[in-house]
Write a structure and sequence with these properties.
The complex is a heterodimer of chains A (406) and B (472). Chain A has 406 residues and is an alpha+beta fold. Chain B is α+β, with helices and mostly antiparallel strands and 472 residues long. In chain B, helix 1 runs antiparallel to helix 3, helix 8 crosses helix 10 and helix 8 runs antiparallel to helix 13. Chain B is globular. The chains are: A alpha+beta (406), B alpha+beta (472).
Chain lengths: 406, 472
């Protein structure tokens, strides 16, 4: 379909302000409501157009060949915040930083520190399931989502979950959207679980060889010293000459002081507390550092496999930008590598029962490898049916499986 | 059920493990919900995953629906089968297959009893967190089906937060492995989708759970209040202070009275309008600091007395009334309708007033015991189902309580599931598109809809978008 025709049809649907052209001349729809988003999907479905989804343009496939792009950037409203219930409803295009500021005014906090820039859209964090170091203390992205509204590929609005913190009514459709990379619909709105802003927030750093740091991390876990983040950072990511282990404690002042004391009593690492005014910028620099290469992937590793898996990454790819949850076992790597190497790495990881998820990459890499690659036996059929039901016309251009069977 | 099907099932599991005479089936006509009763076509009890697979292969061949069942303690009628369906009881599959204390994982069969798992790992300093009130009887497989909760889920999450990997036999007898040992999804989060699917996606034959270390220090506090509103304000105050207790439970006057009149009497003050149990855990210095803050919040909100215990024996005494509340209520009348609903925490005081108004109007006996920290209510109605008028009033009251919770922005179930009990309420909180999407998700796992048919999703309320699309 020609860009001109698509552009004209979108303008008729959304008005002049609801559509623009991206730098390559591709029509870009900018719906301002969930209903308008669903309408765009319905039009695309009826016309057989392919769609790509864009938040701020960093994590989802901004270079996928399609008939139109759909940006969530005008869906940027914090719809409601309830301090008494610690629940917020936000539109998917809301930049994380905007939400963070808004919540801080009311003494609340969303315990997510995803990789990337602070202005990342909440929708992209959910769609890619990219949790950061706080995953250790507060769980993966899905634990922060109580529900969401999505537009399906054929323009239905599905409202999954709810606004209460405990809910087992019906199947948990929200789980499918978190980390679904938009393959099961476009997230329009989210209900988020919040926390009270911690009274104390302390980060300490230790520098040593990687072996020493991982072994201390294991000892800390054994001794029930439980930081909310216990992240191992490669020298390049930490901009240091050695590997760094960062421990972050939040909570009441007394609890954090106790934890810091215990931290120092285990192993013989020299822990250096970060000055309070530098804490936020330290974690923000680490998060941004993950964008230091075109490809980011994550591996879910059990605690004792962190060292081996980083060795594997260093051997098969490089040791460049690595951030690893020493407790949670989530390893994130950023860099550049040929498709064949990545495919081989995924094969080795699978043989160790480690799933490797491609979080961001240029479109040809996504297309070749898929975010998930080959599924285990029987799973592909289920996923195929799920995609059919949420996007029967295959309008959503998302490469979950990869082009070849691996 | 045809004699040839009975014979074929007997060849798979042995004659001993197939029950088809009416008297034998009586035990399986109900689960924990007293208002739904139905005889299954027959009951088959597989002893291992291969037998489950063989059974499902056979049922697929003859196109017969089935219902999986654990200990039958569910409270939504989800484990009850129609005469056309085969009930597959999984209680024989009760082995813990592996425990890894270092990596804090256990692999088990679905029939393992919840409390037995925690007992088995306790010597290793570990426990399995979700602790539904029925934990002494209910199975982990049933917990997975219902996404069960429990008092300690406020801080540590419900079942879905503790399951990392599942082996599932689908209705067509194919076997799939979902999730990964670490817990990151292998592809889309199908474990997250499966947990809480109420037996409608397939039968779980192997479960890998996350184990947590037993906290080094635990402090239990019991406070009594002259008003429910005061107790509710204390709950909000504790959460707003950034403290997440391991448990935060409330009991109302009727519940306390039932407990204190029973053999489970725990010394709760019977003149209190509400009793609040707060449990803090973690490192001892943190627990002590938080306990001081919590006590001042409790007193500030009007607590008349605050009792506090740290030793296991003293803590058990404070907990006893709460743990045995359902048993105590069971003494009051032959039947107990255990309800389950959720409201935003801030709506607690108003909803309690509303429940009291409904109770008085229908002339019922309702006691409330609930997970106050997450707004999960359990209004429990004592009745005798042999009295049709009373039973009708119970039904009306349940409906009105649900409607009030939904109107307050809540949900129709927080941990018991929809089953058949709440299927009529589903359209109150989900529109036709969403119910249609749920049905489609179920069909992705079970296209023929033979697994636990007729539960959770009211088919008449779904928008059949395939048809709708064709007409558009």
């Amino acid at each position: 379909m020609s860009n001109k025709v698509v552009h004209a049809r979108l303008r008729a649907l959304l008005g002049t302000s609801g559509v623009e052209r991206d730098p390559a001349g591709l029509p870009r729809a900018i719906p301002e409501s969930a209903d308008a988003l669903a309408l765009v999907c319905r039009l695309a479905h009826e016309e057989g157009w392919k769609i790509r989804i864009e938040g701020q343009g960093t994590w989802l496939a901004g270079d996928a060949p399609v008939d139109l792009a759909v940006s969530t950037r005008a869906l940027d409203q914090v719809v409601s915040v309830s301090p008494a219930d610690l629940v917020a409803t936000v539109q998917a295009g809301t930049p994380l930083e905007n939400l963070r500021r808004r919540l801080a005014d009311d003494g609340m906090w969303l315990a997510l520190d995803p990789p990337g820039r602070p202005e990342r859209s909440i929708g992209s964090i959910a769609a890619t399931g990219t949790a950061g170091p706080l995953r250790h203390g507060f769980g993966p992205v899905r634990d922060h989502l109580l529900g969401c509204t999505i537009a399906t590929g054929d323009g239905r609005l599905v409202k999954a979950g709810g606004r209460v913190v405990k809910n087992v009514a019906g199947y948990d459709l929200t789980k499918l959207q978190v980390g679904g990379f938009g393959g099961f619909g476009i997230i329009a709105e989210l209900h988020l679980r919040l926390r009270a802003m911690p009274r104390a927030d302390v980060t300490l750093l230790a520098r040593a060889s990687r072996d020493t740091l991982t072994s201390t991390a294991r000892d800390l876990m054994g001794a029930q010293v439980v930081p909310v983040a216990l992240e191992l950072l490669s020298p390049a990511l930490a901009a240091e000459s050695e590997w760094v282990l960062a421990a972050r404690f939040v909570g009441t002042g007394a609890a954090v002081q106790g934890d810091v004391r215990r931290l120092g009593s285990i192993g013989d690492l020299a822990w250096q507390p970060l000055p309070a005014e530098r804490t936020a910028s330290f974690w923000s620099v680490v998060a941004r550092g993950i964008l230091g290469g075109p490809i980011t992937l994550r591996l879910g590793v059990l605690g004792n496999g962190v060292d081996d898996t980083i060795d594997l990454l260093a051997h098969d790819l490089d040791e460049g930008l690595v951030s690893a949850g020493a407790g949670s076992g989530m390893i994130r790597w950023t860099g550049d590598a040929p498709i064949e190497r990545l495919r081989a790495l995924r094969r080795v990881a699978a043989s160790r029962e480690i799933p490797m998820t491609l979080e961001r990459a240029p479109w040809p890499v996504r297309l070749a490898l898929g975010h998930f690659g080959a599924y285990r036996e029987g799973v592909g059929q289920i996923v195929g049916r799920l995609r059919d039901s949420f996007d029967p016309g295959q309008c959503l251009r998302v490469a979950l499986e990869g082009a070849t069977g691996e | 059920m045809t004699p040839s099907l009975v014979a074929a099932l007997e060849r798979i599991v042995g004659p001993r493990w197939v029950r088809h005479r009416r008297a034998e089936l009586k035990t399986y006509t109900m689960d924990g919900l007293p208002t739904r009763e139905s005889y299954p076509g027959l009951v088959v009890m597989p002893g291992n995953a291969e037998e489950v697979r063989e059974i499902l292969r056979l049922l697929h061949l003859v196109d017969v629906p089935f219902v999986a069942r654990g200990a039958g303690t569910g409270l939504s009628g989800g484990a009850v089968a129609d005469p056309e369906a085969v009930l597959i009881a999984l209680t024989r599959m009760n082995r813990i297959l592996r425990i890894d204390p270092v990596l804090r994982r256990a692999v088990l069969q679905p029939g393992v009893v919840n409390a037995r798992l925690s007992e088995a790992v306790e010597p290793l300093g570990l426990h399995y967190v979700p602790d539904p009130s029925s934990q002494a009887a209910c199975t982990v497989g049933g917990n997975v089906a219902e996404n069960a909760g429990g008092p300690h889920c406020l801080k540590y999450g419900v079942t879905t937060n503790h399951i990392v990997q599942l082996e599932v036999v689908l209705a067509d007898a194919s076997v799939v492995r979902l999730g990964s040992p670490q817990g990151d999804p292998w592809g889309p989060d199908l474990v997250g989708l499966f947990v809480g699917s109420e037996g409608m996606f397939g039968i779980v034959t192997e479960i890998t759970v996350r184990l947590e270390p037993i906290p080094p220090s635990v402090r239990t506090m019991l406070a009594d209040f002259a008003t429910v509103r005061g107790a509710s304000e204390a709950v909000s105050g504790i959460i707003a202070a950034g403290i997440v207790p391991a448990a935060l439970e409330m009991m109302d006057r009727a519940c306390v009275a039932a407990v204190e009149a029973s053999i489970y009497a725990a010394g709760y003050p019977t003149d209190a309008a509400a009793v609040l149990l707060v449990e803090l855990d973690g490192q001892s210095d943190a627990v002590e600091g938080e306990a001081a803050t919590v006590e001042s919040i409790l007193r500030g909100a009007g607590a008349r007395e605050v009792r506090s215990a740290s030793s296991p024996a003293d803590r058990a005494r404070l907990w006893q009334g709460r743990k045995k509340a359902f048993g105590a209520m069971g003494r009051i009348a032959p039947d107990l309708a255990v309800q389950d609903a959720v409201v935003p925490r801030s709506a607690l005081p108003d909803i309690m007033d509303r429940i009291e108004e409904i109770r008085a109007r229908h002339r019922l006996s309702i006691s409330n015991v609930f997970h106050a920290g997450d707004g999960n209510l359990h209004p429990n109605i004592s009745f005798d189902r042999r009295d049709p008028d009373l039973t009708h009033r119970v039904h009306l009251a349940c409906r009105e309580i649900m409607a009030a919770c939904v109107a307050a922005g809540g949900s129709i179930t927080g941990e018991h599931g929809v089953g058949s009990d709440k299927i009529d309420y589903m359209p109150w909180i989900f529109d036709a598109e969403t119910l249609g999407a749920m049905r489609a998700v179920r069909c992705a796992f079970d296209p023929a809809e033979r697994a636990n048919p007729g539960k959770v999703v009211p088919l008449h309320a779904c928008r059949e978008w395939r048809a709708a699309r064709g007409a558009r």
